[in-house]
Structure formats: C-alpha cells, structure tokens
Amino acid sequence: MLDVIIIGAGVTGSAIARELGRRDRSVLVLEKGPDVCEGTTKANSGIVHAGHDAKPGSMKARMNVLGSRMMPTLARELDFPYRRNTSLVIGFDDEDRKTLEKLKEQGEENGVEGLAIISGDEARGREPNLSKKVTCALLCRTGGIVDPFLLNIALAENANVNGVQFEFGKEVKEIHRERGGFVVKCADRSMYEAKYVINAAGVYADYFHNLVSGRKIHITPRRGQYLLMDKKTAGFVDATVFQCPTKMGKGVLVTPTMHGNLLIGPTAEDIDDKEGTFTTAEGLAEVLEKAGLSADNLPTRQVITSFAGLRAHEDGGDFIIGEVPDCPGFFDAAGIESPGLTSAPAIGVYVAQLITERDHAPEKKNFVAKRKGIPCMATASPEERKRLVAANPLYANVVCRCELVTEGEIVDAINRPLGAKTLDGIKRRVRAGMGRCQAGFCTPKQMDILSRELGIPLEDIVKSGKDAKILCGPTKQADPNGTICFGYTNAADLESRKQN
Amino acid sequence: MADKSYKTVIIGGGPAGLAAASSAVDSGLDAGDVLVIERDNVLGGILNQCIHNGFGLHTFGEELTGPEYAQRFEDKVKERHIPCLLSTIVVDISTEDGKTAREAGREKNPKKIVSAMNKTDGFFTVEADTVILAMGCRERPRGALNIPGYRPAGIYTAGTAQRFVNIEGKMPGRKVVILGSGDIGLIMARRMTLEGAKVEVVAELMPYSGGLKRNIVQCLDDFGIPLKLSHTVIDIQGKERVEAVTIAEVGPDRRPIPGTEETYECDTLLLSCGLIPENELSTQLGVELSRVTNGPVVNESLETSVPGVFACGNVLHVHDLVDYVSEEASEAGKRAASFVLHEGENEEDGTVIPVTAADGVRYTVPSSIRIGHMEDLQRIRFRVGAVFKGASVEIDFNDTVFRSQKKKILAPGEMEQVILKKSDLTGFDGLKSITIRVRKNEDI
Fold first, then answer.
1. Residue B159 to chain A, least CA–CA distance (Å)
2. Which one of A166, A470, B87, B271 is separated from A209 by 20 to 30 angstroms, measured CA to CA?
C-alpha cells in the first residue's frame, strides 16, 4: 500500500507532490492526461496575484498572499521564469476609485504589501499605452507574472527527482475506502491502494469529493478565452493591467507574458461541459472589445493564437482545502480557480503539513531542493550561446525558427525527468511551435526528433492526447507487383482487393 | 567559415538566394567573396516540397517540377563555386558598432555583422559589405485567423501538409476541408486527392480566389472539388483530432451569415490563407517595412532603407510565380555587386521619384526610383486589391497620364508589372512622382 495518491498533475497536484516528497513516504500522482499541466494549469493568465482580490479570512486570501511571497524564492530554487512586473487595477471614474480604495483596504487586511492608489496620469507615466480615459489605478508592487507551464513542470520534475512517482493516462474512476485506506480504480482497470488520497483534480474535483463524501460540493467549469499576440508587441505594457471590477463583471486583463508576448483575456462563462475548452467567435470578440477599454491602439493585428481554459469554480466561491470531515484520510484541494496558480506553492506546503500531522513521516536527508531548467538559446547572451554550443553542438541546430528553439533544447525536454512525449509537451517545456508561425515549419522536425528519441514511429506521435495523432499513415505505396495501392490498406486489404 | 569577411552575404538558399548569388558573381564579384547561408540542410527552399510541375515556363520555356527548377539554380551556384553554409541559422544582423543606417549616415556604408550558428562552426559572426535578404515567407497560422473552436490535431497550414506528403511520405489526413484558396491550398487539394484523400470543399473568405486561375482549373475543377467563395470556417469540432468543420457564407462585411452554416465531417483542416514575408531579421537590422506587403520598402535597386542591404523574392513581397522571384533576385544580386564594385562612382543626381500605388493597386515594388541609379529599363511590380475586368493600368507622371494599358482581367492572385524606360523619366520635365493606378472601364 502506498502512503499517498494524488489525483491530478496540474500545478496544485504537482506542488503538493513536491512538498510531500520532502519526507520519507511513497507518493504516486495519477494523471488522466499524457503529461503534467494538461488541464486548468495550461490555459490561464499566468499571473502571480498580489492578493487584494480575495475576501479577508478566506482560504483564497491566505493561500494567495503566502503563494505570492513564496514565488521569488521558489523561482530561484526551481529555475522557472517569474518576474515581479507589478500590476495596475485601473478605474475610469469616481465610483471605480471607491472600489479601488476598498480593494486596497482589503489587500492590506490580507497582508499585501506595497499597495498604492495613483492617478491616471501617474498610471500612464508607467504605462504610456493605457487608455486616456483611465482616471485612477491601484498599483500593486508585488504583482507578478510566471510561466504557468514551467512552474507546473518544475514542481513535478523536482517531485519526481525526489522519489514521487507519476503515472499518465490514468483516469481515476472509482475510490473505495478499504482496510484503513483507499482503493483507487482507473479507467484502464489498473488499481492502486493508498493510506491517503489527495484530490487535486481541477474541474473534476467535485466528482471525486462526492464519491467519498455525503457533503456534496459542486464545481462549475468557468471558461476563459484569451488572445495571444506576437512578441513584436513586447513592451506594449510592462505591468499587468486589470480592470476595476464593476457590476458589469470583473473585466479582462492586458498583460505581458514571461516571454514577451501580449496576452488579453479572459472571458468568464459558466458552462456545463468539463471538457469545453473551445473558443467562440463571441468570446474572442468580447475579449478584444473589453481589452480595448484598457489600452489605446491595442495591436490586434498581431494575434498569433487564441485559446480557452476552464477555471474550477466551486459554488461556495472559496478554495476547499483540507481533510474531508466525513471521510478521514481523503484530502481536497478543490475549487482551485484564480488565484490558484499563485496559491499553488502555498497549497502544497499546507496540504503536506496536514498529511505530516497524520503520518509523521521523517524528513528525507537527501531531499534535492534545487532544479536546473533547460538552457534557453533564444535569451542566452552570445557568450552563453558559444559555451552551450561548444558543450553540445545540438544547441546550434535551430528547429523552431520563430522562438529560436534548438534541437539540443528539445532533446533535453524529451529526456529529462517526466520528459515530453508529445508535441504539446515539447512546446510547454521549450516553446517550440509557440511563435508566430504556430509550428507550421517545425512540426515535421519536432516529430523526427520525438520519433528518434522515444523510438516510436512518426505515425504514433501525438499533439497531446492519445487520439491527437498528427499523421494517419503513409502515402500511396507501390506494391512489389508494380501496381499502386493505397497507403492505408494493410497487406490483408490489398490481398482482398486483388481478389475482387 | 566563421568570423570571416565577405562582400555579399545572402540570407536564404531558396530560389531567391540562389539566383541572387549566381547573379552577384556574374556581375563581377569573386565567388569566394559571396556567401549563402541556408537554415535547412539542402538548398532550394520550399521548392523541394513543390513536386508538382509548372515551374519555369517563363525562365526556361518548359514545365519543371519545383525540385528541378531549384536544381538548375543550385547548379549555377555550384558551377561558380559559391560557398553555401547549410543547416545554419542567422540569429541576428546588425551594423558595425550597433549603428542603425540613419545613425551611420547614408553616405557611409556601415559593415554588416551577421551572427549565425550551426553544429559544425558553433556560434559565429561574419562581416559583410552588403547583405541580400532572401528569407522567403511563412504561412498565416490558424491563430492569426481567429477561427473559434477546439484546438485539436489535424489543423495544418497547406505547406506543412505538403511537406508531410511530399517529403515525409505521410498522410496528414483522409477527409479534408481547406480554408483559403491560396496557391498552396489549391495544389494540396489536388495532391491530397491524388493520394486517396477526399477533399470536401475549399472555402474562401473573399469573393475571389487568392490563387492563380490555372491552379483553380487544374487542381479543383478537374477533380470536381467545390470552391465556395465568400465562405469561412466558423467552428472546429473534435477535442483531440479534428472531427468536423463548420463553414458559413459571409456577407460583404466578411461576417458569417446566420443560417448558412454547413458542417463537414472531416479529420483535417488545411489553411491556405496568405503568406507573410519573414522579416524578423530585417526588423532587427532596422530595415523599414511596408505595412501593405510586410516586406522591406525598396528603391529601384531593390535596396532597403539600410544602405547595402538588398531584398528579393518572397521576403520582399509575395510572388505568384517563382520565375519572377528568380528574375527579381538576379537583379538584386547584380545591384549588390554593383554597390560593392562601383561604390561612389555612380554620382547621385539627388533626384528621388516616389512611386505610389493608388486606386485598386495595393503596392508597388520599388516604391521609389533614383534616376541616377536607374538602368535603361525599370520594372515595377504590383498587385491589385480586387478583381477588375476590362480595366486599365495607368501610369501617371505627376498629375498627368503617362501611359495607360487595357487589361482583360486584373486579379489579386496574379502579380502585375509595368516597365519604364529611363528615357521616359529623364525626358519628362519636372518629374516629381509616379503613380500606378487601376482605371475602371466606366471611369474612362
């Protein structure tokens, strides 16, 4: 019997895994997708929220502020891109100003440092592209941005290096309490036993909670649609620009990403479909329109992609973190919507503490706290480039020209702990295919490398899930008798065709 | 190869780069002073995957396949012993001391520093008196088209699909919808059909095709593939792999008309929605770009706003036929050689005549002519922004019509040109500007 099973390898599950890995215990993460970072974590704003948004005393407020404080150190330890770019919540009139003042008070009560109300002109002094109509803003000096993929991947890799096991393609279907622990059954009929189960299943967390508890919870997938713009727009804004929440809604943000793109969004649409990650014409139009309120001359011609993610909104509106009262040994990390990304490191520490209170596992002496990320040729200095290429010539072979990603980086992404097995996996680790041509040129090259490194045929390479195959078979082949046959017919088909 | 100095460095070993290289040598440069840098492991660029025929009718008077056409120019480069670096990516071009062209001043020709890398030489720089930009173009991806829906596998640009089929020998899908009627999309409609796939429909947002007439006939009509003009994709279904695509008719505002939706079950959506010149390096160098073509603004010598930096082929403006790419690139090679060999000799008389596009003409290449640098004949290439039947192409000198030529049809998919004699310009007193416009029938 394992000590702990975590359901879900998103940022929450991975943060918990990393913290559980500090002590001597057996931990297994079961993930439905083919990789870490396949659900809510892969499609969000990538913001490290300062912490003024959540209601004082709520779990959200507590985790947000702690998580935000942990982020700088964690980024150094685990080598993922993070920057305190500050954030601005902008207002357009006196009513907004009042709201901003309330937000400031709320933030201070939550323990957020460095909040200030500034004038519209001061705000434009910082961000010249802000709308002329902005009259006031809440400046949040601890606001930041992070690469959400690499935060998730770094946590998971580090957990794995410290002995936490990950299994992918494991869709948990049933959970039973048995013999002082739990039996967890997956869709592929595999079965696992553990003393403790942690539910970090994103939009599906209500399903697992409700399997074991009579006190039902309900999660609504709240869709957020985004538009991402070319790196040519770098510098359009430096801070993350939020709109003042009004009766009309929370508004959308305009923010730089860690890699210099401009990101606008999200919408907030409550839907029923937990897999409804599609964009809509109306949603994208709404984002463009609302973002246009924040900044003048938004470079909308530079859009390179759009995407949608689902936030796990629990009816109560707060994170549900802790042992389920009527099911001892089962721990929830449920309803993790915004500011979930920011909060993840704090949730990891908190849940690990709860488990430690129960299992008293001793600390590992050989815990590896540090992780070294994959070198990035695109941002390396000429000297670093020379050094990297001298050490490994594959670092001179550019595969993705838009983002300047080399074969060396891709091979590294595939072969490291919990390495990439899919095109999306490579993309999230080293950004190949994330640029302006959106993988038009580099897809075939990446496939060749994946095929070679994993020892699988080209036809088996997927974008993400097991059915997301890129190719469907060979072109027409000449058969030995000199007649042409269709590539998709196998030898038996061919025989039967000949006979007909 | 690394850390050397060259008279001309050509960025890109596709049709433009190859033609420019041999022309530069034919125009007097030593082969050893010219360097071609190509990012792929073979020369020829995108022609390598264009295995259909129809290339070279203008240049060679015969129909060649893409690889055959490329081979002819590759042979020229080899015969002249022009060094080519393969599998080498240029990561940066800058001017000496980091000065931009304007800072350095027009009269001075700052050396260009080209930073590149490959597996053999590592990261290195070469110095160049002149640079010829010949990086080609890329296809507009789905994201830039704002097509809503899921993001499954099975959505490819036509060029990516072409590579899968023609280079890798693999099929990207069996049941296909194509959005956009650019030439590569049309070619791929036929190619996929020949390989046993079913191409359900080609949808085109505009009321006309962006491709060549001959491709519509030979690639769609001959195979009974419907072309739906004024249609676009409004939804993509399928979470992991494309399962269906919904198209709808669009109104004059290019917005979908409710009630016209049609859903096609398919596993693949190919996109052929326009090509974008790849000018990221040019931008780093400070080259001024045209908002219309997304390519550099050039003068009569195909020289960009940075002295000694020339541009040709699809990086300059997207061409319809490779023959014109070769022709243009040969001119760029010649001009670069002349820049090196005769710098300062060509006394500038200072007159710069702007060439402007108007009334249906989207742009012109070049966009200015220095009379002192003109050859006897000056070609001006352009494209129109809509289909015109029985209209005239008019060349205005200042405010008066200099020449007007009737055209049976003018279409956005086909590149047009006019040729001016140097004597036309020198013989016109007080010439201040040249305008190329479309004069519709009823206007005349």
1. 8
2. A166
